[in-house]
Specification:
Elements: E1 4-8, E2 17-20, E3 34-39, E4 42-52, E5 63-64, E6 67-68, H1 77-89, H2 94-100, H3 104-107, E7 114-121, H4 123-130, H5 138-150, E8 153-154, H6 155-159, H7 165-173, E9 177-184, H8 203-213, E10 220-226, H9 232-245, E11 249-253, H10 261-271, E12 276-278, H11 284-296, E13 301-304, E14 316-322, H12 340-351, E15 354-359, H13 364-371, E16 376-380, E17 391-396, E18 402-403, E19 406-407, H14 408-419, E20 423-427, E21 436-439, E22 456-458, E23 463-465, E24 472-474, E25 486-489, H15 493-503, E26 509-512, H16 520-531, E27 537-540, E28 553-558, H17 572-584, E29 595-600, H18 606-630, E30 637-645, H19 648-662, E31 669-681, E32 684-693, H20 696-712, E33 720-725
Helix pairs in contact: 1-12, 4-5, 5-7, 8-9, 17-18
Bound molecules: zinc ion (ZN) (2 copies).
The site of one zinc ion has 8 residues, from loops.
């Protein structure tokens, strides 16, 4: 019997579909290639993920593949293996998982091979060129002469001579030239020639480069823990140079916000080849173009955010995950909750190449893996240049005067650093003008109608906005309940900027948050003002902590460290510690030492004490001990079944029934269901059921058995639900 092909289709069904060999031609598709197949009354594009000898479907009902779209697979064997694993592990339908690995254009059937546009002269055109025609149109004359001389001439070559298309169209109208599309089907060899000279490495960097390079050609996982400013990127670049010299390629994943034009430029300049860049802000056409550059191998490295973990990288030699602790590596869209960081480790394993997880503040999971020798722990403890690590100090908000969020000691420190000609960074993880609008008479607080949340005041735009559902309304001049005046309470970045402007009228201020950064260019502009010294004070949210160098910032003020100290989410303290260390790392990166002031109402909180006394490592050690005692990850495995419904009852009912189905499963503990801390969001009620197990295998066995039953529940149809394996955020 001829083999059957197991095809992934973009459906929510948790299975592959069997098809027989195509009728026409009889050629067999390769695993990883796209095919067009009949599905019900429709025709769908699918991906062959395997072959089989027999099928559960009776032979007479099996249909043949209609068309093979890819002579060369679009998914390499390591990616096929990764997707199958991911579908199983994250309990998400294989078809949706496989399709998510491809750009939209390819899912719709676009050609994988880049077609190169080229132009050539017709027989008449060559005769005309020989006699110097068309004499009255010198541009056409020159172009025809060139095309006739070169033979089939790629458009990129013609582009070098300036605008030529008007002339080409005129020549085509005369029937003297024609346009052809040539396939570039095979992966090209790596041809990288390093451009910028590599700087001299510090001892720690050189050691890390040697240790990682010694593993090239086989799987090994490294944690590269380098304090901010210690030059992790330089370590990546050195190892990547060796990878390229060996004729292989590298995949580098960075957090969404860390992927700046400067970073791309730095990789390009050093490696001598432009990276294929993949991120969520690309248009479909741009994404296809970048994907093709990766697939063809014209790009020697692929540099991208989360979903680039599935990018094609022929002759993969190394994977790097920079800022591995960053929350943006966890995907939540489309109901598929995967960790690109974890999948990167898996992919490296399947491909037999080393993986480097870099961070100044590695996640506790990663540190635990290093502690148990699953990962090799490399440390960079020196800062490049003469930079010394900054000094951290707490400011007790209870014992100092505070003006809209800024304490007197902080004001004095800012004024001192400005007077010395330095720059200051003020961090507050809250955008807008004020988080609350309060009536001065009756106590009314502007609520969001759709959420259990308050509306944030955006004074410049005279709006009230909900940061959870996007609700937006005009800022009322008076209390809608009693008519007395209203007052913004508390401070966000917009208000802090205003306050600082009043306090330091001579110091130009730049602000960095999602309200002022709408497009990538906005960020560039703000960075330029800060880097060039035009702005003396930078006020910003989380955005300021990611991957930017501000060498002249000598003072960092953390306005409110208290969000996260008393959260019900066991990861909140880890995130707070990471944020403080990351934002503190922005200070003193040049030759002068930095100062970091952290405002808090809880100066005796053990987390802050630990962080100040022993740094991130000391904090991590204590935090891991707490996790072990409480049986939280990484000392157990979690999954969260979440749902939302129009009523709180419906949201809880589905989860209660799901819990009942589990019975008394011996290997797992079910916690909940409970309504989310902010139960109502965008008019829907959210709830959660946690599943905890001592290890991954037992959790997987339970989920595989349980989930199909959950899916079949009648109450499942009344809610929107999803399963999140290894959830990063808990309600
Ligand atoms: Zn009122
Ligand atoms: Zn809302």
């Amino acid at each position: 019997m001829s083999p059957l092909f197991r095809v992934a289709l973009d459906t929510p069904l948790r299975r592959l579909f069997d098809y027989t060999t195509p009728v026409a031609g009889g050629a067999a598709p390769q695993v990883g290639a796209r095919v067009r197949v009949p599905f019900g009354r429709r025709t769908l594009v699918g991906i062959v993920l395997g072959t089989a000898e027999e099928s559960a479907v009776p032979a007479e009902r099996l249909k043949p593949i209609l068309e093979i779209l890819d002579p060369r697979p679009v998914l390499s064997p390591d990616v096929v293996e990764l997707l199958a694993w991911a579908s199983q592990y994250y309990q998400h339908p294989i078809g949706e998982v496989a399709m998510a690995a491809l750009p939209r254009a390819l899912r719709l059937g676009a050609a994988a091979a880049r077609r190169s546009e080229s132009w050539q002269a017709t027989a008449e055109g060559r005769e005309a060129a020989a006699v110097g025609e068309p004499r009255r149109a010198p541009r056409q004359q020159a172009l025809l002469a060139r095309i006739a001389q070169l033979g089939p001439c790629p458009a990129e070559v013609l582009d070098r001579d300036g605008e030529w298309r008007t002339a080409a169209r005129a020549l085509r109208a005369r029937g003297w030239v024609e346009q052809r599309e040539l396939d570039v089907a095979e992966a090209v060899a790596v041809s990288a020639a390093p451009n910028d000279p590599a700087p001299q490495l510090l001892a720690g960097q050189a050691d890390a480069v040697e240790r990682i390079s010694a593993s090239l050609g086989r799987y090994d996982a490294f944690v590269l823990q380098g304090i901010t400013g210690s030059g992790k990127t330089e370590v990546y670049l050195h190892v990547i140079e060796r990878v390229l010299r060996a004729g292989r390629r590298a995949l580098v994943l960075v957090p969404e916000i860390g992927l700046t034009p400067q970073l791309v430029q730095r990789f390009h300049a050093r490696l001598g080849v432009p990276p294929a860049v993949l991120h969520s802000g690309l248009t479909d056409a741009e994404r296809l173009q970048a994907w093709r550059a990766a697939w063809q191998g014209t790009a020697a490295i692929v540099l991208g955010t989360r979903s680039a973990v599935f990018a094609p990288v022929p002759d993969l030699g190394l994977i790097v995950v920079d800022e591995e602790h960053d929350a943006s590596f966890k995907q939540h869209e489309g109901g598929w909750h995967y960790s690109a960081r974890d999948l990167a480790v898996l992919r490296a394993h399947h491909a037999g190449v080393p993986v480097v997880l870099g961070s100044a503040t590695p996640s506790l999971e990663t540190l635990h893996n290093a502690g148990t020798a699953r990962y090799t722990h490399l440390r960079l403890t020196e800062r490049a240049g003469a930079a010394t690590p900054p000094q951290l100090k707490l400011i007790d908000l209870r014992s100092h005067a505070v003006r809209t969020g800024i304490s007197t000691p902080a004001v004095l420190a800012i004024s001192k650093h400005l007077a010395a000609g330095d720059q200051v960074l003020v961090y507050l993880n809250r955008r807008g003008y004020a988080p609350t609008l309060l009536c001065t008479a009756c106590g009314w607080i502007a609520p969001c109608r759709e959420c259990d949340a308050r509306m944030t005041v955006h004074l410049a735009h005279q709006r009230l906005r909900c940061h959870h559902c996007g609700a937006d309304s005009p800022l009322p001049a008076a209390c809608p309940q009693c008519g007395y005046p209203v007052r913004p309470v508390g401070a966000g970045t917009e208000r802090i900027e205003q306050t600082l402007q009043e306090l330091f009228p001579q110091a130009p201020i730049a602000r960095l948050d999602r309200d002022v950064v709408r497009r990538r260019d906005d960020m560039e502009e703000i960075m330029r003002r800060v880097a060039g010294g035009e702005a003396r004070i930078l006020v910003g949210t989380q955005m300021v902590t990611k991957g930017h160098d501000f060498p002249n910032v000598t003072l960092v003020v953390v306005l409110n460290a208290d969000q996260g100290l008393f959260s019900s989410d066991f990861r909140a303290s880890e995130r707070l510690a990471q944020t403080i260390v990351q934002v503190a790392g922005r200070a003193g990166r040049g030759s002068r030492p930095g100062e970091v002031l952290i405002q808090t109402e809880f100066p005796d909180h053990p987390l802050l004490r630990q962080l100040l006394a022993e740094g991130y490592d000391g904090f991590a050690q204590v935090a891991l001990e707490e996790r072990a005692q409480a049986h939280w990850p990484p000392f157990s495995r979690l999954a969260a079944l979440r749902d939302s419904a129009r009523t709180p009852q419906a949201a809880l009912l589905f989860l209660r029934e799901a819990r009942a189905l589990a019975g008394e499963a011996a290997d797992v503990r079910l916690l909940g269901p409970v309504p989310a801390a902010m139960a109502r969001r965008a008019g829907r009620h959210h709830a959660q059921l946690l599943i905890e197990s001592p290890d991954r295998t037992r959790l997987q066995a339970f989920l595989t058995e349980w989930l199909p039953q959950v899916e079949a529940l009648k109450s499942a149809r009344a809610v929107r639900w999803s399963l999140d394996v290894d959830p990063q955020e808990l309600f």
